[in-house]
Amino acid sequence: MLMIGLTLFIAFIGAQIAKYFKLPAPYMTGSMIGVGIFAALTNQAVMPSNLKTFAQIISGAYIGQQITKQDLKNLPKMALPIIFLLSLFTINTFLTGWLFVKFFHFDWITGLLSCLPGGIMDVSLISMDMKANAHTVATLQFIRLAGMLLILPYWIELFVQHFHKQTPQPKNETSVAKQKSSLQTTKQRKYFCNQLFILLVASLGGLFGLYLQLPVGALSFSLLASIILKLTMNTTPLDKNIRFFAQLIAGSIIGSTFTDDSLLFFHQLILPAALLLFNYLIVNLIFGLTIYRTKRLDLRSALFASSPAGATDISLIAGDLGGDMTKIALIQISRTLYTILVLPQLIQLFLSLCLAH
């Protein structure tokens, strides 16, 4: 227990340092890096791997609470662009994963999961659940997230200025922003009861998924339970600090598996990371130009909507730069749900059918 406490303390320090330097997803990346360095240098980091179920349940509960009835009402209008984008992401996942296996000698499960267009915490949890090389997946996911957030605004402005037919869209409030406003007016006692109720329902869903022994069952079923709860009872979203704690746990679990060989291996990920970023930028451009030419979205909004970075981060950046935040947020949420609920199952099916022979 003492070493678990020390590992969590180091994870917290790493998260605070990452937050200070404004790294993407600091509680996940900072804890992973901090604990990873500690583990590689001392071989003393301890974090029980079965705690990943706890982190998966919280992650599913948190994401599910971002869905609103308004999102469902807007879904039919954006159905074709969403289906087109998810198809592009699926093709890119399997194509880039194959390139990782063919040219960089990744195992199949690690190669494919490294290409998932989801959040770093969620994909890292999926990689642990599906027995992939979790720190390789987490490192590539971090590079993807950081790279997209850094490159994207300049990339988008380059093409918007080239076509220069765009007019800035009015800034819209996302459902997340509205929910934050609602959260501030909620009485404290009711607020804590709401948080506990969400976690209880999500936990029951997650444990049921675990019982079914499905790939990523705990995460998928806690997410579905949270969505149903949100739509039927209009619960207030979970406090971000709860998800931050889950990120500390997840980052600590991955970091504790690091060895000195793991650190030496990182330089070998430079080319795969560059390939991953390049392929996602190509997907971004194909989707953006196609949807723009069919007049379903302005070019700036279409490019932001197809960016595989954090849904909230992208929506807020897009709002600052003149994108349609409501439609962007809807497409980003759809991407997140698809990455968690569908793509891991497709990968598992692919591995069982194609690689078993």
UniProtKB/TrEMBL annotation:
Ordered alphabetically, the record's keywords are:
Membrane, Transmembrane, Transmembrane helix
Superkingdom of the source?
Bacteria
This entry carries the following GO cellular component terms, namely: membrane
Tell me the protein's name.
Ammonia monooxygenase
Respond yes or no to whether keyword Membrane is given for this record: yes
* Biological classification of the source: Bacteria, Bacillati, Bacillota, Bacilli, Lactobacillales
Which one Pfam family would you cite for this protein?
Answer: AbrB
Which GO biological process categories is it annotated with? regulation of gene expression
Transmembrane residues, as ranges? 27-46, 79-100, 106-125, 137-156, 196-229, 270-292
Annotated InterPro entries: AbrB_dup (IPR017516), AbrB_fam (IPR007820)
Q: Tell me if Cell membrane is a UniProt keyword of this record.
A: no
